[in-house]
Amino acid sequence: MNTDSTHPPGRNRRTLVGALTATAVAAVVTLAAAVAVPTLADAATTLKSLADAKGKDIGFALDPNRLSETAYKNIADTEFNLVVAENAMKWDATEPSRGSFNWSGADQVANYATTSGKRLYGHTLVWHSQLPDWVSNLTSATELRTAMVDHINGVAGRYRGRVTAWDVVNEAFNDDGSRRSSVFQQRLGDGYIEEAFRAARAADPTAKLCINDYSTDGINNKSTAIYNLVTDFKARGVPIDCVGFQAHLIVGQVPSNMQQNLQRFADLGVDVRITELDIRMQTPADATKLANQAADYRRVFQACLAVSRCVGVTTWGITDRYSWVPGTFPGQGAALIWDDNYIKKPAYDAVTEALGGTVPSPTTPGPSPTATTPPPPGGCRVSYTPNTWNTGFTTEVVIGNLGSSAINGWTLTFSFTAGQQVTGSWNSTVTQSGAQVSVRNAAWNGTIAPNGTQNFGFQGTHGGTNPTPTSFALNGTACTTG
């Protein structure tokens, strides 16, 4: 199984109200003393404005029933330039009985996209889950094929010219790369995916057509099976324009080859998208988990931004309050970038910085260098992981406390050896004098528990080489590396 564990059918049906430990999340994000709901006056610093400046989509999955909630709607209005229906455009919602369409929820989403000036992403035309019983009960291949084409014509045809792209077929493969044994696969065979794409092109010639799946974010058997399908479709002229990577991920498990995976699909001549991003953790959340989650969100956005044909990232919801995760993975959650109380989490700042924005320094200052405690007996370890391109780089750093007592307040020092210059940082304050670099903790991550870790990162420039520093000191005490 890949890093983003499989999720069972019907994962998006839930309506969760306060199932996560909101107090735990709010307590660790102490820099947010009150719920700060964005308004139109904040537009210059929103994710939407940053994504627009880069020509990228920043999207979210919408439950139109939540638009009556002020905090939800304000974030939806100001922070995103693309919207996808969480459930309202799926088969059970749009055609609950054969030939009888219900457009109430889907029209709300489409109309919201129009009135708020957002692009509309279609999800999904053919999927084995959230499928009405009448479809599953069609035993004749001819009848099922007709029903599938009629459904595509009905739904894609209604929103013809309004949808930027459709998830035409969703979750068609198993983790081992074999075809999922859905009713479509059983009755129609391998050809049903091609038939669905051809029908979608006829129903809406201007929409881009995507295949979408989970556990495909890294290079593995499943993503390779889809890669081979796209290769075949492109060779034979079957209409396919894009591939969606759901990215339902777990903190600490973003695939190291995610960018490479996106790039190999882009090299086939299709767009790629992160379509359903959330990064879950064991709850309750704490400062370390939230910092690690922020670093993971940054990695995902950086992977997309590094691939020219990655058109954007969509998060599967806005707030942890309504996330599907806890109902499917008990004991896990806190997967989005706003918490239960609509407070921005560290992940929000990480996404902001990944998109080229700046994050104000915390209003609560971190400990001064004189207030720090040295590493206890047992010492410290530093892991330094650079990601280098052309003349730029980013680096993730993890500091480990190998001792039996806490470190309260930390400053990490090291030296560059090839003229590198730091241009920005996250989860830390970085100062540089010549080759010497000093990194202080942020307000929320100054304590490193015994046998615990804290992480931070920074971005910078180099002159052609970017060697890793060879020695590090934490509060003046040398650390091991690795």
UniProtKB/TrEMBL annotation:
Keywords: Carbohydrate metabolism, Glycosidase, Hydrolase, Polysaccharide degradation, Signal, Xylan degradation. Residues 362-378 have a biased composition (Pro residues). It holds the Pfam family Glyco_hydro_10. Its EC number is 3.2.1.8. Residues 373-482 form the CBM2 domain. Residues 1-43 form the signal peptide. It comes from the Bacteria. The active site is at E276. Residues 355-379, 461-482 are annotated as: Disordered. PROSITE patterns: CBM2, GH10_1, GH10_2, TAT. It catalyses: Endohydrolysis of (1->4)-beta-D-xylosidic linkages in xylans. Residues 44-354 form the GH10 domain. Belongs to the glycosyl hydrolase 10 (cellulase F) family. PANTHER family: BETA-XYLANASE, GLYCOSYL HYDROLASE. This is Beta-xylanase.
